Amino acid sequence: MKKLNVGMIGYGFMGRAHSNGYNRVNNFFDLEYRPVLKAVAARDQAKAQQFADKWGYESVETDWRKLIERKDIDAVDICTPNNLHKEIALACAAAGKMILCEKPLSMNGAEGEEMVKAVEKAGVPNTVWYNYRKVPAVTLAKKLIEEGRLGKIFHYRANFLQDWTINADLPQGGAALWRLDAAAAGSGVTGDLLAHCIDTAIWLNGNINTVNATTETFVKERKHQLTGKVEKVGIDDASIFFCRFGNGSLGLFESTRYARGHKALYTFEINGEKASIKWDLHDLHRLEYFDYKDEGKLRAWRSIHVTDNGGEHPYMDHYWVPGLQIGYEHSFVNHVADFLEALAKGKPCPPTFRDALETQYVCDAVLDSAKASGMTKQVKHT
Length: 382
Ligand code: NAI
Ligand code: SOE
Prior knowledge:
Blueprint: E1 2-9, H1 13-28, E2 33-41, H2 45-55, E3 59-61, H3 64-69, E4 75-78, H4 85-94, E5 98-101, H5 109-122, E6 126-128, H6 136-146, E7 153-161, H7 182-185, H8 189-205, E8 208-216, E9 221-223, E10 230-232, E11 238-245, E12 250-256, E13 265-272, E14 275-280, E15 286-291, E16 301-305, H9 329-345, H10 353-371, E17 377-378
Parallel strand pairs: 1-2, 1-4, 2-3, 4-5, 5-6, 7-12
Antiparallel strand pairs: 7-13, 8-11, 8-17, 9-10, 11-12, 13-14, 14-15, 15-16
Helix pairs in contact: 1-9, 4-5, 5-10, 6-8, 8-10
The structure holds 1,4-dihydronicotinamide adenine dinucleotide and alpha-L-sorbopyranose (SOE).
């Protein structure tokens, strides 16, 4: 079996989710490659060592540049806050390393363009961890749409709701709270949460051409953890937009961190002329499906438990017996499997940097439109 030596930068939430993916993938998938956890890079040596011991990394670096320089690293996994994605990715491309980068690809479209140019010039395999695509029920939705079961699509609706920043005393910036600091995050819920919804939407329903948006920052000032000063909040706490897709359908998207009672409610619904589908992250192994073709007296929404074997339900042949479901963490196992399979075949592993740039352009247009009081903005395309 061929080895893929992985170096990870950042060891927070995603560091754990990805490490689990690398550790588990060969237990479930028959692949040509086996990831080897060569090194993790983070600034605090002791904490990084603790992480390395827990997840099985062979070594630790305290400067991510050293990790990239190492000859024994084939692929670099970028698990840092958003403001570091570009610099690290450009260094990786220059060193000829494969890159698995967390979402959003970049702080904005201009940065994303540089990153796409760099990986394509270097010819290095690349992917962006829009992991919700890899949830079997979401991949099944893609399959049903491609089979033409929905017919012409009229509507696409998505929400990503959270409630963890309502407290006005919560500081911004620094460890754990970098998402509230525009300098580290780029934007608020638009780049953090809506980016997921947009990636899935483009994948399932094609390009978005125009957007009209509004955003709000409910808490205007917060103490900054790093400077100790009360500073203006530069991120969007809530973001709503409607849009037109290239296929003629209309889209409606909402995201907020101020929806009391919701922790990570990502839902989408698609309405076509023949059928509709719905998905809910809180019930991620189910796909709701309504087919107008059904006999009238039985016609209703059906809830498909996406756990069958025999090739009918994506990824599920690799797990348990039919009826037994998998969870959030398996979306990352599936993503690693897709990356390794693509690598073996010499093919790209979507979403690539270029695919993720398309999402970045939509985020840019959303933020531009909100600044212009909801004016229609054209979305740039890659
Ligand atoms: P986190 O705050 O839990 O971890 C960030 C890590 O980056 C920490 O280990 C921190 O020490 C490290 N770091 C920061 N500056 C660094 C530097 N200069 N050198 C080396 N390491 C540095 O953040 P989390 O939640 O893991 O997010 C990381 C990335 O993953 C973000 O881009 C975020 O948008 C994305 N993300 C994606 C998710 C998904 O669903 N695909 C879920 C959560 C986060
Ligand atoms: C924010 O709380 C967050 O962790 C996002 O950063 C992720 O991308 C999303 O998948 C879950 O929520």
